[in-house]
Amino acid sequence: MKSKPDILVIGAGYVGLASAVFMATKGYHVNVAEKNEATVSQLKKGKLHFREPLLANNLKKVVKSKKLKASLPDKNIYQSAELIFIAIDSADQSSWKMKLGSFKNIAQWIGEKKHKKPPLIILKSTNIIGFSEQFRKLLDITPFGKQVRLVVNPEFLREGFAFEDTAKPWRIIVGAEKKNDAKPLLDIYKK
Q: How far apart (Å, rounded) are the C-alpha atoms in residues 32 and 60?
């Protein structure tokens, strides 16, 4: 019996990679989906595409140990993951409106296939108040999206210290419609 869930992190920026690399250092198998082909190529070599020393060192280790893999987005990895962390560029900072295009694709890929055990989606992207309800609606219009569990888990990271702040957070906030929905995420944080 498998003791650790398959994890997918969507987005290879500060938030996504800090989360992915940290979970991989704790023994989880993590896939990182990133739309930038050059970034994926660098990550596969264990090279970080921005300056973050501790994150860079740990990235090398988890890529070498095969605990972390990077790839371009592919609906098969969306449909096999048990926990899906969404950490993509999400809000237009000039208008503070959400960039829905990528979220529509993600919802479609997740919700078009029936899962034995519905995945838990964790919104880590910066988002505006009420966005989780918008994303819930995007999931619900897909064939099997209503089965998917959704929680919000915002990040609180300092630039240059993303790995450290992920490893030793000064606060963790998890929001869910049903308390039990958040249990798999809370189990990871407890460990």
A: 14
Packed helices 53-64 and 37-44: angle between N→C axes, nearest 10 degrees? 70
Residue 6 CB-density burial (10 A; 0-12 exposed, 13-18 middle, 19+ buried): middle
* Whether 67 contacts 31, CB under 8 Å: no
pLDDT tens string for the chain (191 positions)? Answer: 356 788 999 999 999 999 999 999 999 999 999 999 999 999 999 999 998 999 999 999 999 999 999 999 987 888 788 999 999 877 666 776 667 778 888 999 889 888 888 899 999 977 777 888 989 999 999 999 999 999 999 888 888 899 999 999 989 999 998 889 999 999 998 88
CB atoms within 10 A of CB 121: 27
Return the biggest CA–CA distance within the chain: 48
pTM, two decimals, is: 0.92
- Distance between first and last Cα of the chain: 19
Do 32 and 55 meet the contact criterion of CB atoms below 8 Å apart? Answer: no
